[in-house]
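Colleagues,

For the teaching module next term, I've prepared a clean inverse folding example: a structure given as tokens, and then the sequence designed for it. I'd like students to try predicting residues themselves before seeing the answer, so please don't circulate the second half yet.
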């Protein structure tokens, strides 16, 4: 009996690291996928789920053409999930990283206290078709935006 218990315990311990490695980025941030329109503005955010990361971009529509103003990525680095933002005309075009500090099925919080602005970015699922993005600087000063999901089969340029 004792031997079976020890073998079972060893099997569990050996399987634990393998199970931890099966977590996918899409499991953490799946609610972001798709195209989202910022309420009352012609600004959009689009997220694509890839096997090992989420790729995103923020863009405007100008004369019916997309003009990207930021590229985004959520991926695992050294066992930690991080959010990467690149805005060509800010930070000398360098990518800024924000480690995930809090997560649930409906909310993701990324923080980089050393960055000037933002220091914290929070994505929150309000419903299957609505999310909010809150961006905070020093002392939690910042702003929030409400985004509405554009159905996949609809041409979002109509919006």
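(Answer key — instructors only)
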């Amino acid at each position: 009996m004792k031997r079976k218990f020890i073998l079972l315990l060893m099997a569990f311990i050996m399987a634990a690291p393998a199970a931890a490695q099966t977590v996918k980025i899409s499991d953490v941030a799946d609610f972001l996928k798709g195209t989202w329109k910022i309420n009352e503005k012609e600004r959009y955010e689009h997220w694509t789920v890839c096997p090992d990361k989420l790729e995103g971009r923020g863009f405007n529509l100008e004369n019916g053409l997309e003009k990207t103003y930021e590229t985004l990525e959520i991926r695992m680095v050294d066992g930690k999930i991080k959010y990467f933002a690149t805005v060509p005309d800010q930070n000398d075009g360098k990518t800024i990283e924000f480690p995930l500090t809090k997560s649930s099925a409906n909310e993701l919080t990324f923080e980089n206290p050393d960055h000037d602005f933002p220091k914290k970015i929070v994505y929150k699922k309000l419903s299957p078709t609505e999310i909010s993005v809150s961006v905070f600087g020093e002392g939690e000063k910042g702003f929030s935006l409400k985004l509405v999901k554009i159905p996949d089969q609809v041409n979002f340029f109509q919006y």
